[in-house]
Amino acid sequence: MQLIQEGAVGMYVCGITAYDVCHVGHARAAVVFDVVFRHLKARGYTVTYVKNFTDIDDKIIDRANKEGVGIDQIAERYIKLHDEDMAALNVLTPTVTPRATGHMAEMIALIAKLEEKGIAYSVDGDVFFAVNKFSTYGGLSGRHPDEMIAGARVDVNDKKRNPLDFVLWKKSKEGEPFWPSPWGEGRPGWHIECSAMSRRYLGETFDIHGGGEDLIFPHHENEIAQSQAATGKPLAHYWMHNGFVKINAEKMSKSLGNIFPIREIIKQYHPEALRLFMLQSHYRSPVDYSDASLREARTALIRCYTALQLMKQTRAGGGVLQAREKLQPAELQYINQLQELKDKFDAALDDDFNTAQALGYVFDAARLINQVTTAEKKMPVWVKQVILDAAAGVFTHFGDVLGVFQSDPDRFFHADRSIEVAKRGLDVSRITDLILERQKAREEKDWSRADDIRKELALQNITLKDSAGGTTWSID
Fold first, then answer.
1. What value does the mean pLDDT take over residues 345-351?
2. Whether residue 401 is found in the same domain as residue 434
3. What value does the mean pLDDT of the chain take?
4. Which of 234, 264, 294 is the last residue of a domain?
5. CATH number of the domain that residue 282 is part of
6. pLDDT in tens, 247-258
7. In which domain, by residue range, is 189 found?
8. Which of 26, 73, 318, 322 counts the highest number of beta carbons within 10 A?
9. Do the beta carbons of residue 278 and residue 27 sit within 8 Å?
10. Is the same domain home to 258 and 161?
11. Are residues 106 and 224 in the same domain?
């Protein structure tokens, strides 16, 4: 990756419009670029990650008017809820999280510069960008102007000289919030805010610009036009767009009623299951959200946490941790394999952040941990501990970069079980009574009754695990 400044990365990602709760589509973008942020930092780069909030917009104004409150109250409410959702998904806070209303001076200055250069024009308090003055318009999306006019989300406005011209500044209507400007009282258009804020924090040209695939046109196309027209320089060196989220193979839309808020999803599944689901596909690929896909992600997550739980128990098995140099070549091979998987994991993410491939190496490492923890008794405990100590370091790296495996295994299983109990309406006291009854039957060597109880619980997808410390249960 060719960087503007060696060892440093500037990244801008378009954030939410703060008028409603975040949904699964927001989760996709947030998780994708969180992993980009994490991986670059793990690779030793200094990363300045800027992700904005749009806190002035028609939708925000409409909601504020319906509720009879100010736009600032609406924005504050939904930014707070956004932050709660991101914390639940273990999304790191970006370096800078600017709000549009805090950067009016920068936006007005940029618009004035475009007008001065003859690329923007004002009509009765509105200011528009003249698309025909920017010869490479459409370069990002690869669309022909005729196609843009026919199929784009282009605002209808009789003041425009060209249907593709887009608004930079809007004259305020009665009852709307406004800011003073050279063109009169008004507010900024949507596109100009990102150009102004990225320039403020990252400079005229920066390394990576990201967002959802739906932003390629017109938003990112317009960002490029207004920024490059003003500076004569490229806006960003690399553009990254995550694919759409489909719901049961259908496009997600409010009209279809298939918008799933993050906070509702994590009542049904552990937040790490949702995060892992997002990472199982390459970021540029579409993903199909469904209960079946979430269950598959949960199963994969449980498989990894089961390995981590076995590793935890084995490492706590006692004895003095010996030096790695005392391992035999066959034993040392386990550590070499773990290091190889870590190297392959990093290489997969170096290759256009291929989380799907990287996760394959994570699952391979989990299988290797299982091999060690369940190895025959001829492998001394101290040997297992040395190998698993190395495995713990590798899995910590996986978790730090992917943002999963962040819980102690026992806490994870407790949280996952609590979610499943509530979702399925299970009677925990009844389950506990049956386990105690089975324990008594085993003590009395009533194997038939003990087996019947296991089968009865299995009908509820409850699996029992017997150990020296007693019987535990989980939900499949």
1. 98
2. no
3. 93
4. 264
5. 1.10.730.10
6. 988 888 777 778
7. 8-264
8. 26
9. yes
10. yes
11. yes
pLDDT (average), residues 342-348:
98
End residue of a domain, out of 245, 264, 283: 264
> In the 3-class helix/strand/coil scheme, how is 356-370 assigned residue by residue?
HHHHHHHHHHHHHHH
Q: How many distinct structural domains can be found in the chain? A: 3
Identity at 381, one-letter amino acid code: V
Closest CA to 475 of 466, 462, 465, 464: 462
Are both 273 and 379 inside the same structural domain? yes
Comparing 151-165, 189-203, 297-311, 384-398, the range with the smallest average pLDDT is 151-165
Distance CA 417, CA 149 (A): 52
Query: CB within 8 A of 112, min separation 6: which ones?
Result: 182
Q: What's the pLDDT at 152?
A: 47
Long-range contacts of 289-296 (CB under 8 A, 24+ apart): 289/24, 289/245, 289/246, 289/247, 289/248, 289/252, 289/260, 290/247, 290/248, 294/265, 294/268, 294/269
Judge whether 47 and 39 are in contact, CB under 8 Å: no
Q: Is residue 350 part of a domain?
A: yes
How would residue 156 be classed by pLDDT, with cut points 50, 70 and 90?
low
Both tokens assigned to 29: 């973008």
Say if residue 250 is in the same domain as residue 273: no
Convert the pLDDT of each residue in 315-338 to its tens digit. 887 655 667 778 888 889 999 999
- Judgement on whether residues 400 and 435 belong to the same structural domain of the protein: no
Q: Which of 60, 51, 56 is nearest to 98 (CA)?
A: 51
Instruction: Return all residues near 13 (Cβ < 8 A) that are at least 6 apart.
Output: 29, 33, 49, 50, 51, 94, 209, 210, 211
446 assigned to some structural domain: yes
Number of H helices, E strands in the chain: 16, 13
Distance CA 80, CA 86 (A): 10
Instruction: Name the residue type at position 197.
Output: M
